[in-house]
Amino acid sequence: MAADPHPDGAIAPEMDSDAAWATPLFAEGGAARGDAALYLEIDGWEGPLDLLLDLARRQKVDLRRISILELVDQYLTYIEQAEALRLELAADYLVMAAWLAYLKSALLLPREEQEDPSPEELALRLHLRLQRLGAMREAAARLMGRDRLGRDVFLRGAPEGLRIDRKALWQCQWFDLVRAYGDVKVRGEPVVHMVRERMVMTLDSAITRVSSMLGVALDWMELRDFLPPARESWTNPQLRRSALASSFVAALELARTGKAELAQDETFGPLRLRAVAR
Amino acid sequence: MTGDGASEDALLRAVEATLFAAEQPMAAQALALHLGMPQSPGAVRTALDALRAHYAGRGIELVERGGLWHFQTAPDLAHLLRREKEEPRRLSRAATEVLAIVAYHEPVSRAEIEAIRGVQTAKGTLDVLMEAGWVRVSGRREVPGRPVIYATTPEFLAHFGLASLKELPGVDELRAAGLLDPVDDDMIEQTLGRDSPPPSGAEPDDAADDTD
Amino acid sequence: MTGDGASEDALLRAVEATLFAAEQPMAAQALALHLGMPQSPGAVRTALDALRAHYAGRGIELVERGGLWHFQTAPDLAHLLRREKEEPRRLSRAATEVLAIVAYHEPVSRAEIEAIRGVQTAKGTLDVLMEAGWVRVSGRREVPGRPVIYATTPEFLAHFGLASLKELPGVDELRAAGLLDPVDDDMIEQTLGRDSPPPSGAEPDDAADDTD
């Protein structure tokens, strides 16, 4: 619709209510509005086919028996008069006018000079298009006039509603259960294994060991002296490092709680500790 | 549920109560499922027919629309009820025409709609109909360009009080007159191939191809 | 509306349709007003009584509550409105594992389950098992914090066709069946990396030794 000089033209019909278009525009008694009204209603048509259909209906005969020649004349007259009134016409109206003028001349020319398709056939096809559009327009009006839900017939105002409580029916087979336990065991075992291999001296045991040894010591002792003797499993270097770290944290913990005091004379020098006299 | 009569009556009551309470129209199959007898949609259908007969002529009626059943008020009582209800959405003339074309020609592409109407259809027009729940996209046509095709919905049938599309006003006559024949694809292609509005240049050709 | 009978019937239909479409229960007086006959609430009451009698015993009934009338589903059919639908659902992997642990170690606390599984157990997992009716709370463990402990139910035994928990295959049998084949390191890594650590380092060890 870019070429439409009447921007309202495309919109106005959309705004019309079904009653508004079905009655006045297409009523057989269109004479009431006279010729003058025709020109003012240029906005009323949605394209040339719409206008042609309206003109066809003004012939006041069955759409199947309209005279194409008369229709063409009416259309051309309409276009001419619109031009005389300096109304700008959309390109599609003018193209339709040119084609209809051609159709008219073809219909009037002697038969033997015609090419394919014959003008009669072209006229018939135009005719059919108008019929199709007319049929749909009538169908729409009849459809809108039916007993419509929410306008003429009504559903129950306050239905209780159907509620479906979905309840899961849990499925599990014996084999799923047993296999799941197998999976748990398999997954658990390596974890256990790794804990055993990475032998550590726990903080708790370090605190117990350091504090009990402090209790019997009379003087400063170096931290390393608190470690278990390097025999049997305690030869493991990993475990010794763990024991040293745990004992160091144990010493800090005992100092924090006021049970021991720490001394170190130089950086990285030996760390000594002794019990705080009660 | 001892005798046949008793069980029939129980089913009748159950179907009546369920449809009465339902917020949406229901198919016989869905009713059978809801009533825990998915194997017997036939019995439910028999009950539905009996109920429809019972309610005929009353202030409420039981109707089937596109295979879905619901209770509604009798149409001749519209004058009593309408005053308090708001009018449903008023459709534009273009929208009513497009709706009629979709209903009578479905499934139909936008180009086919435009070919019948002789004008381009504003995008919003189909949207309005889809928003109203009366038209849906039903797929694509397996032709070059794979255009989207549109069809009506069960809500359309329910709203306009149609048991099926066969009940569309005058549909048999229109079909017999050839006015519902498929729109020719060549014509659509030509229509689509143009920048100008379809009715303009395309018109004569369209009309010519139309009836082939 | 000529004879008395005809007009009575028309009123009956009007009252029926109006109450059906009404969103609220209505008093006889309000109905009379709505139907444009404010002078004849008596006639409306007669119609209401006739309707109530008509619907008695059907799937729908017309009831009066405090002077207000409305249609409702027959009370004995209320179960149709709230329908339970059982949907088969497969137990999740996590839930199956938890169920297996409860079965092999019962009674067992949630912390113990987590320790055995090596991952935290969502609260919902135990809820699902209790909803399924396979696991129940069997008491509290008399240790600090008094944690809730879980055990299996008779339904559990029935579902899995077990006479007692002793019928569950032991660890040796699991190993023989290839269900305890070691998994590769990547899988362990994934398992360890993905899930949160067990609540305490020592617990898996203890719990695992349990069943040997």
Kindly describe this structure:
Chains B, C: This is Segregation and condensation protein B. The complex is a heterotrimer, with one copy of chain A (278 residues) and two copies of chain B (212 residues). Chain A has ten helices and four strands; from the N terminus they run αααααααβααβαββ. Chain A has helices at residues 7-15, 18-25, 34-40, 47-58, 68-84, 91-108, 119-144, 174-197, 203-216, 237-256, and strands at 163-171, 221-222, 260-264, 271-275. Chain A has a three-stranded antiparallel beta sheet. In chain A, β3 and β4 (271-275) form a beta hairpin. The radius of gyration of chain A is 52 Å and the shape is rod-shaped. By secondary structure, chain B is an alpha+beta fold. Chain B folds into two domains: 7-80, Arc Repressor Mutant, subunit A; 93-203, Winged helix-like DNA-binding domain superfamily/Winged helix DNA-binding domain (Arc Repressor Mutant, subunit A, Orthogonal Bundle). Chain B has helices spanning 4-21, 28-34, 41-55, 78-81, 93-105, 110-117, 123-131, 154-159, 171-176, 185-192, 202-210; strands spanning 26-27, 60-65, 68-73, 108-109, 135-140, 148-152. In chain B, the strands form two sheets. A three-stranded antiparallel beta sheet of chain B has the order 1-3-2. In chain B, strands 4-6-5 form a three-stranded antiparallel beta sheet. The model of chain B is unreliable at 185-212 (pLDDT under 50). Chains in contact: A-B, A-C, B-C. At the A-B interface, α1, α2, α4, α6 and α7 of A face α1, β3, α5 and α11 of B. β1 (163-171) of chain A pairs parallel with β4 of chain C, so a sheet runs across the interface.
